[in-house]
Specification:
The chain is an alpha/beta fold and 494 residues long. It contains 18 helices and 18 strands. It has helices at residues 3-8, 55-65, 79-91, 138-143, 160-172, 199-206, 217-232, 273-286, 291-305, 316-325, 336-339, 343-355, 372-383, 395-402, 411-419, 436-442, 458-465, 481-493, and strands spanning 14-19, 21-34, 41-54, 68-75, 94-99, 107-113, 116-123, 147-151, 177-180, 194-195, 236-240, 246-250, 253-260, 360-365, 387-393, 426-430, 446-450, 469-473.
């Protein structure tokens, strides 16, 4: 499923958010001098803005993404609570803002000069009340949603009892529940579909001290995740890593870690970025994305969010624009690290290209010790199409085809070298003995390769069978990986 298609499907889903809401109050101004009364900056106030924070920011982002959003939250019987309810009614279809007497609505005031935070002032007390205040309609609200998001800021709403009540309702209704956690007691999240801590929260919950810069990070991440799975019955764990992106581990495959880098280009303010990530991740899953694609879109959304000042919402169009900026000047080729794609991704992009009237070309090979002959063929191939996809044999397949001493360079190195070429748009590694399964998935308009006639080229026959075209490329004589290796061996003997 194309990432852009997932984003466009946001408008068709309904999300229930249960969690701690707060009022974010921003004071904007400038600092030009130090006070003569004390060594502190003098803040010259210019403007202010009030917006939803916590779970309120989650639903604001859901609304901005185009989703239908409902919320269940606590507020105080005060002016801040009335302001929160008014703001929620602007972004939610149904608001259940339950008033808890004797407690203030949580309000966080941030003093900002230019792009710099000077001070934060918190007015809060943890809400305390019985489980009955949720009312009898929690289960009904869960059944009416496509996905449920729990935004826990440890302010009193998501007590262990209330948290488990919501999760049990989700399990009974067979609805996914995604949790942004707080604290180190994950027993309250038992049974959750996905728990999404940041790295600090993950270390706190597991008692570990791991960091993405450490060489054994993924091993320690697996260790901690497996411990949480075993103790609490959590199904999946998504750990956000700030400037290092995010990592995912599943109880179904606890030895595997899927990690992606950050998307942020310039960071102005991290306020609310976690809320944006939760909203985009949940919306993407509800829209039919798999975990990996939902991660990618959450990563893109949070990258947009931190590029804004204040607790800002991200729109579906901003995500689409960010996805578009990932493309190269050709409009289709991704940046080097993103040119290397899976078979599924390649098939999706090829389909998109055809919809746009662009001609997809395909060639394949080992490309071991990249040389001028390879470049000659690849440039020829690119001249015959709008988008060139290159199938690359894995190390294992090369060993089967050419013997145990090959390849000279590992598959990652070979893939990166191909991806660095301007005239290569996508690289897809394949482990089959022939490229035919990959060609079947991509369905190129034209297949290109040197040294093969049609009668001895099954992939070409297949492409021509559905109306495509096969082109035999001219070989640049005097260049081959085998001859290069032989010359190197001969030079070593001298």
């Amino acid at each position: 499923m194309l990432l852009s298609s997932i984003v466009k499907a946001y408008r068709n889903i309904r999300v229930l958010c249960v969690g701690d809401v707060m009022l974010d109050h921003f004071l904007y101004g400038k600092v030009e001098r130090i006070s003569p009364e004390a060594p502190v900056p003098v803040f010259n106030f210019q403007s202010e803005k009030k917006m939803l924070g916590g779970a309120g920011n989650v639903v604001a982002n859901l609304h901005s993404l185009g989703c239908s959003a409902d919320i269940l939250c606590f507020v105080g019987d005060d002016e801040a609570g009335r302001q929160v309810r008014g703001l929620l009614e602007q972004v939610c279809d149904h608001v259940a803002a339950l008033v808890v007497p004797g407690f203030p609505t949580i309000e966080k005031t941030r003093v900002i000069a230019g792009n710099n935070h000077l001070l934060r002032i918190d007015n809060e007390r943890r809400f305390q009340c019985g489980d009955e205040v949720l009312g009898p309609k929690v289960e009904e609200r869960v059944r009416g949603a496509d996905i449920i998001l729990l935004s826990d800021y440890a302010k009193g709403l998501l007590s262990p009892e209330r948290c488990q009540r919501v999760i049990r309702a989700c399990l009974a209704a067979e609805k996914p529940v995604i949790i942004d956690p707080k604290g180190d007691d994950y027993s309250k999240y038992a049974g959750a579909t996905v728990v999404k801590p940041n790295l600090k929260e993950f270390n706190q919950a597991t008692g570990l001290s791991c960091h993405p810069s450490e060489p054994d990070f993924q091993d320690r991440l697996r260790e901690g995740a497996q411990n949480l799975f075993r103790r609490y019955g959590i199904r999946n764990l998504l750990v956000t890593l700030s400037e290092h992106g995010m990592a995912f581990v599943s109880a179904a495959h606890p030895d595997e870690v899927f990690q992606i880098p950050t998307e942020a280009r310039e960071v102005f303010d991290v306020s609310g970025a976690g809320d944006t990530s939760l909203a985009a991740f949940g919306a993407s899953l509800a829209a039919g994305a798999d975990i990996q694609d939902a991660m990618k879109l959450a990563n893109v959304a949070s990258g947009v969010a931190v590029g804004k000042l204040g607790t800002s919402c991200v729109t579906a169009q901003e995500i689409l624009d960010a996805l578009s900026r990932r493309r190269s000047s050709s409009g289709l080729g991704w940046r080097q690290k993103n040119k290397i794609v899976s078979r599924r991704e390649a098939a999706a992009v090829a389909a998109q290209c055809r919809e746009q009237g662009k001609k997809v070309g395909f060639t394949n090979g080992c490309f071991d010790l990249l040389h001028q002959g390879h470049l000659h063929s690849l440039m020829q191939a690119r001249s015959q199409c709008d988008v060139l996809m290159v199938g690359l044999n894995t190390d294992a397949s090369i060993k089967r085809l050419k013997g145990p001493d090959r390849p000279v360079q590992d598959e990652k190195t070979r893939a990166l070298l191909l991806a660095s070429l301007e005239f290569v748009d996508f690289v897809i590694m394949f482990d089959d003995d022939t490229a035919l399964p990959l060609v079947d998935a991509v369905r190129p308009d034209v297949i290109l390769k040197e040294g093969y006639t049609i009668d001895r080229w099954p992939e070409a026959q297949f492409v021509e069978g559905y109306g495509g075209r096969a082109v035999t490329l001219t070989r640049l004589e005097g260049y081959s990986t085998t001859s290069t290796i032989e010359r190197m061996k001969h030079a070593e003997k001298k």
